């Protein structure tokens, strides 16, 4: 098989790249090792920056998002038993975020690609990428035990943190920067109306908690737990008890309980590789970087990468110039590091660190007090949360 761009991974990065290339008349093939059902049901992120929403709407994949997405113009920071609203609309000149599940984004993009005659091949095995240091890279894989090969001009490694593209790059090319946090998030999806109209990020001495939602009937909740926590140690009753404690306010705010329909533990890590490219192989999204989820940035950063990559590839086919391709990594990393900084900052402000001494605890409270009482500090949080402007 021959195509212009071979894409490994049908997550938000791979599918959005394929969609953007198609709109510019460039052919691609996406291969994915999981089934379509699996990727379309995998519960992950839920917050879309304004720029991600605009891109989906402008490129014709925003119909369901506009119909069922929940537009929010603020969040609450809760500490010492009191809530403090950060008003995004006021602080950013009317901007906001949209609550729309990642698997819905994946569904919309997959539907659009297949409806346009695009190739998204699921359930492939034994994927390898080769010869990307020259002009004729190729991807090999198996389907139902038959060997397949895709020859292409470029390979996009959109295969997530545990994918094969990054580790295939020869030793010595990439430098990795990493921080692993001494905690994880236990997340649940519960069949109950959200207890608040907006997201609540709570700093409590027992640990962080987050109230989010998916729809008027579905609540998404997270609580900080130990990094090696076993999900079996958390029966539903223990989860609810802990959530009630961490969200408690002096004015007796009430968290509504419902049937837990999904449960999982997510590790927390900050990770970046530099550069994000090697010859004609370009890494995008989680394949190149991971942020802790506290800033709700992972999915949005993946989309920002492929915007830059699509533009560079389009420019190459239009003019023959590799200038934007050569600068891909440098362009992306400016945003990546700012988003890393924000995600690390939100994480450090809101979580319990077991080695926190009294000084650190006071400093954390001062940070929250500052961010909820200074317009300048609140504005900085708001402009990062709704999404920094795209440099294009
Ligand atoms: P992915 O979505 O990981 O897509 C990569 C795709 O490549 C996957 O479909 C995978 O199956 C496929 N793949 C992997 N290896 C191969 C291979 N060898 N061959 C072919 N295909 C392959 N972010 C938030 O903002 N908030 C959250 O609450 C949140 N929760 C998360 C929970 C979990 C368990 C995880 C893993 C991530 C979470 N994230 C969250 C991060 C966010 O979901 C990611 O940043 C986002 O999915 C990145 O998109 P991507 O397309 O780069 O990677
Ligand atoms: C959600 C996830 C996040 O990581 C976050 O910061 C806010 C909301 C969510 O899944 O809804």
Strand content: 25-35%
The N- and C-terminal alpha carbons lie at a distance of 33 Å
Report the C-alpha radius of gyration, rounded: 21 Å
Number of helices: 13
* Distinct small-molecule ligands in the complex: flavin-adenine dinucleotide, 3,4-dihydroxybenzoic acid
Mean pLDDT: 97
Q: How many strands?
A: 20
Determine the structural class based on helices, strands and strand pairing.
Answer: alpha+beta
Biggest pleated sheet:
8 strands, mixed
What is the oligomer described by this structure?
A: single chain
Question: Could you explain how this protein is built, in words?
Answer:
The protein is of the alpha+beta class and 392 residues long. The protein contains 13 helices and 20 strands. The chain has helices spanning 12-23, 36-41, 50-58, 63-68, 88-92, 102-115, 165-168, 236-247, 298-319, 323-326, 328-350, 358-373, 375-386; strands at residues 5-8, 28-31, 47-48, 70-72, 74-79, 82-87, 97-99, 119-121, 125-130, 138-143, 146-151, 154-157, 175-191, 199-203, 209-215, 218-225, 259-274, 277-278, 281-283, 289-290. It has an eight-stranded mixed beta sheet with strand order 6-5-14-15-16-13-17-20. It has a six-stranded mixed beta sheet with strand order 8-2-1-12-19-18. Strand 15 and strand 16 form a beta hairpin. Helix 1 runs parallel beside helix 6 (102-115), helix 9 runs antiparallel to helix 11 and helix 12 crosses helix 13. The radius of gyration is 21 Å and the shape is globular. The site of 3,4-dihydroxybenzoic acid has 10 residues, from strand 15.
